[in-house]
Amino acid sequence: MAKAYFPEVSKTIAYEGPQSKNPLAYKWYNPDQVVAGKTMKEHFRFAIAYWHTYKANGTDMFGPAAWNRPWNTGNAIKIAQNALDANFEFVQKLGLEYYCFHDRDIAPEGNTIAESRKNLQAIIELARKKQDETGIKLLWGTANLFSNPRYTHGAGTNPDFNVFAYAAAQLKDAIDATAYLGGENYVFWGGREGYETLLNTRYKQETSQLAALLRLAVEYKKKIGFKGQFLIEPKPKEPTKHQYDFDSATVIAFLKSHGLDKDFKLNIEANHATLAGHTFEHELTVAAADGKLGSIDANAGDVLLGWDTDQFPVDIYSTTKAMLVVLENGGIAPGGFNFDAKCRRGSFDTLDLFYAHIGGIDAFARGLLVADKLIKDKALASIVDERYATWKDDLAKKVLSKKATLEEVAEYAEEKGEPARKSGRQELLEIIVNDYLLAQ
Ligand code: XLS
Ligand code: CA
Ligand code: CA
Q1: 34-376, superfamily in CATH?
Q2: Does the beta carbon of 235 lie inside 6 Å of ligand 1?
Q3: For 361-401, how does the pLDDT look when each residue is reduced to its tens digit (9 = 90+)?
Q4: Is 272 a catalytic residue?
Q5: 0.85 surpassed by pTM
């Protein structure tokens, strides 16, 4: 029996229902409860983010590492092995099924591409054994193409082809590792794929390079028969001033203009939506409208702070609105809900990791229940349907199916005269959502 890194929790976190006062229990997340035809477990496919949960150490711009994690003992390889044990123990104790990693979180980078590959292969060999023993699976893998100083000016978008090639080699190994572990998705987040100033940047050249890297990855994926879904994660800024994968709309347009749209879906992160000046549900809605809602990074930003705080999601208004989109989309599998979130610097106990994840899981479970009820009762839809009712008219349908002419529509308008104005009923809809939330 491997060493227990989380002795403060002796058994799997259980569902105890909304009346429970136990902070180490789920109040809303009941994995086997069926909601809208699927169990909660199937709806969410919750995943733990390796980088925040095992690698974050509370460091910020004003102070060094502030957390002592019990797995950080020994040399880099030993720490990686310990963290792997911690991961499987933690995911099991939360009663979850998935985890996500960057290549450099799960295994240390070596001095050469070959050495890094060797480190990665040694760890994923162990990870595969652990997956087989526990039934825990990999939701997605990704390559960290942004931390090493070689990527200061970008990876795929670097002005130096040699850096592009280095990134391509690292990407290939990360895809191989993800495929070896049966990863259900592979994420591309453009860490430093952006610019600081246009004075030194060829925008068209750099975005073409990014498309070229993605195309190489798609071809490779097909060649090795990797079945996971490729996902792009939009983010508007940070670390660069302007990131090329700005938001859902920008990424969809980019994929279409480079003929890559059939091969990618989107991984939407709540905090990145806030940074782009959008709501979480906006980003989900834009992705879903194009059939591109692939997966979710479940976290939250702080509207008073302009950076990526990656907090745990606790706002049930936001989770309810998100779950409305997810349910209308028919779910997001093979994607899932990855807690790309970290505890605040002051929450340094490993116990805080449990509270944080339980809070986030319950916030989404509650959002699912409220969203499901709103949909079943047509509480919002009855008003929204009415709002769009005239689009059911024959001529309106002809317009949408591209069969009408401008003259026909103009003639219709002249006959009908001034349209009656109708209220959008925003405040009424807000009351309804509140009533449903409070009734839960
Ligand atoms: C950073 C991103 C990153 C991706 C994976 O802001 O959220 O963590 O999810 O590379
Ligand atoms: Ca993310
Ligand atoms: Ca983030």
Answers
A1: Divalent-metal-dependent TIM barrel enzymes (3.20.20.150)
A2: yes
A3: 999 999 999 999 999 999 999 999 999 999 999 999 999 99
A4: no
A5: yes
